[in-house]
């Protein structure tokens, strides 16, 4: 798409019509600013080492959307549209919220918090929140809902600071940072704490397979809380993660942060008319190139959410997922990229002739939703998505969804690195594509110590 025919004042439906197709709308748009946090605070290698060797501090306040939902029908809303069970929820519980479209294809996910009896908050990327807010505004639910957009995009201050500490020393740091004792929380439960006189909520959490906590409170208190936690962590060699290091644990955690939401399908026309393109647009990049937007879709099962799908309620997409969950065609895996091929990508910059696409370490990304083609014996078997170099593993890793028959760890596959020649992404230079050998590994990649 050499010239943009649509504008950000359009609905998604209008933008698709002007662009010609969903793929033409979303391909080669590049990637926007991720967060207000600098790319590096110290340097990304030391920051990566901290979650394995000491403790890492992350500021999550700017890059996610918040969806506030309140009312007597709120749980009914979630039961109708989320794959999760809500039978045993109560205030203080959290879970990974996942929503699908009527055909069982994945729309989005978020971390969901049961705040009070009829009051809820979910935090994450926008697709799941858009879909739920549409149901609130057009459905028959006694519920109020409000989305706070990504603060880095809107320019507004967040409602809450949202911080995280992870690593083998994380518990000791929080024991020193909180004013009283840490509440006795089970995994993915949250409770009340105070840090330097500031009231906050504390979630027992984990990142990169290491133990830790997430905590949040009024944004106006953010600097005071951050200073108190960093001071408590000084003797444990705490490191503040920059934006680049913060994004890399996904590769070992097994979580794919963004994919194309399955919203461009028959039956979704009214939703696309309701949805502003600026609120719902995610860019596509990478070597996989199809004119059919549905080729970019996944199901919750393929993304590794099969274990949280519960058929104790009749949710949108349940029938399609019930057929798939026992015998999926594709599976999420980790891919280890061959070190000699990786060296060759960089070595091409020092040789005469064509170079391979530049790979910016530790988290190369030229689109919100990267899709690189994965082959076996020259045949398409799936796509590779988010990728990162992990210093602690001395590996370059990506998360992929591939045909189940090739998902056995140790299987050798081929990955195509480099966008198609006719791409218009201003973040991508002229280059030659390269086939990279990769080895299938488990997802999650590392031992879970959370």
Describe what this molecule looks like in 3D.
With 450 residues, the chain is an alpha+beta fold. It contains 14 helices and 19 strands. The protein has helices at 12-19, 22-26, 44-53, 74-81, 126-138, 151-154, 170-177, 222-233, 243-247, 250-253, 269-274, 277-280, 318-324, 339-347, and strands at 55-59, 65-70, 94-100, 106-116, 119-124, 144-148, 160-166, 190-195, 198-207, 210-218, 238-240, 284-285, 330-337, 369-370, 372-376, 379-390, 395-403, 412-417, 434-441. The chain has a 6-stranded mixed β-sheet with strand order 8-9-10-7-1-11. A 6-stranded antiparallel β-barrel has the order 13-17-16-15-18-19. A 5-stranded antiparallel β-sheet has the order 3-4-5-2-6, with helices on one face. A hairpin with a 2-residue loop joins strand 4 (106-116) and strand 5 (119-124). The longest helix is centred in the first third of the chain and has 13 residues, at 126-138. The mean pLDDT is 95.
Give a brief outline of the structure.
The chain is an alpha+beta fold. It has helices at residues 12-19, 22-26, 44-53, 74-81, 126-138, 151-154, 170-177, 222-233, 243-247, 250-253, 269-274, 277-280, 318-324, 339-347; strands at residues 55-59, 65-70, 94-100, 106-116, 119-124, 144-148, 160-166, 190-195, 198-207, 210-218, 238-240, 284-285, 330-337, 369-370, 372-376, 379-390, 395-403, 412-417, 434-441.
Can you give the mean pLDDT? 95
Number of helices in the DSSP assignment:
14
| Rg over C-alpha atoms, rounded to the nearest angstrom | 22 Å
pLDDT under 50 segments (min length 5)? Answer: none
Structural class: alpha+beta
What is the overall shape? globular
What proportion of the residues form beta strands (DSSP E)? 25-35%
